[in-house]
Amino acid sequence: MKQQITIVSIFLVMILLSCGGKHDRQTSESVESDTLNIPELINFLEQNQLDSIIDLDNGMARLKGIKEVPRDSDDFKRVNLDKIYWSDEQIRHSDFRGASFRSARAENTNFTRSDFRAADIRWSLFDRADLTYCNFDQSRLFHVHVNYADLSHSSFRGANMFGMEGHFAILRDCDFTGALMKDTEFVEADFTGSRAVKAKLIRAVLKDSKLDSTDFSYADFTGGGLEGSTFIGAKLRHANFQGGHLQGADFSGADLYGCNFFGTEFESTNFKGAKNVPESIKGFINEKGLATGIWQDMGQTKK
């Protein structure tokens, strides 16, 4: 009898755990993204705030870097590296916080796990570089080129990425929360698994790029070139696609709660299995889950 009671008890516990697991999954799918801890854009930081980032002890002893012979784990904090030529170098685990790195050339160089916080890296070339696990939080990346580069697992929170170019770049599992990504060009880039809450991607060109399983909640894609891009399973709650170009884009399985598609161009845009599709665009979607047309004013315009 005791054995039967034990078996029944175990069975009931398994059922409760199973139900609890399902409840947790359902809750996590509908939960809003954190918008309270958005970092300040570097443009608005005072010098004392920048100093606190640069001077923070990161717990690692480093040798002062020598520009002519850079090495792994070097300390280049606040160093002037403008127009430096560092192609095909190994400069991993190094500290570039507060450095001036403008108009530099560092193609094919390995910077993995380096710290670029509060650095000024405008107009520099990092094509085909290894920038994995790097920290670019609140740095200036104005018109930086990272074509064919690997930036996976890196952080760009509060960074100014205006005009940045990264065709065929790999940016998997990155964090772009609060970043300014206006007029960027990332053609055929891979953002899979990345996070970009409240990022500003106004007029960004992400043609044929992968943004699958990402969290771009509250992101602003106004006027964006998103033709052929995929947002499969992405969390896009309250994202703004106004005036965007979504021909051939794929939103299958994406969460579109509160999205703005006013003036957006659809052509065979895939919404199959998408969740919380706005009522305003449902009239464009056919039985195959594909949408074609432009939503304008209070009505619909179909091609």
Question: Can you walk me through this structure?
Answer:
The structure is a single chain. Residues 1-29 have low confidence and may be disordered. The chain has a four-stranded mixed beta sheet with strand order 3-4-5-6. A two-stranded parallel sheet has the order 1-2. With 303 residues, the chain is mostly loops. It has helices at residues 2-30, 47-54, 279-282, and strands at 63-64, 74-75, 245-247, 265-270, 290-296, 299-301. It has three helices and six strands, in the order ααββββαββ. The N and C termini lie far apart (72 Å). It is elongated.
The order of strands across the largest sheet is 3-4-5-6
State mean pLDDT (0 to 100 scale): 89
Query: Could you tell me the radius of gyration in angstroms?
Result: 23 Å
Q: What is the string of helix and strand elements?
A: HHEEEEHEE
Number of helices: 3
Spans with pLDDT under 50 lasting ≥5 residues?
A: 1-29
What is the end-to-end distance?
72 Å
Shape: elongated
What structural category do the secondary elements indicate?
A: little secondary structure
Helix content: 10-25%
Query: Care to count the β-strands?
Result: 6
- The share of residues in extended strands comes to 5-15%
> Which sheet architecture does the biggest sheet show?
4 strands, mixed
Q: What's a quick, concise take on this entry?
A:
The protein has helices spanning 2-30, 47-54, 279-282, and strands at 63-64, 74-75, 245-247, 265-270, 290-296, 299-301. By secondary structure, the chain is largely without helices or strands.
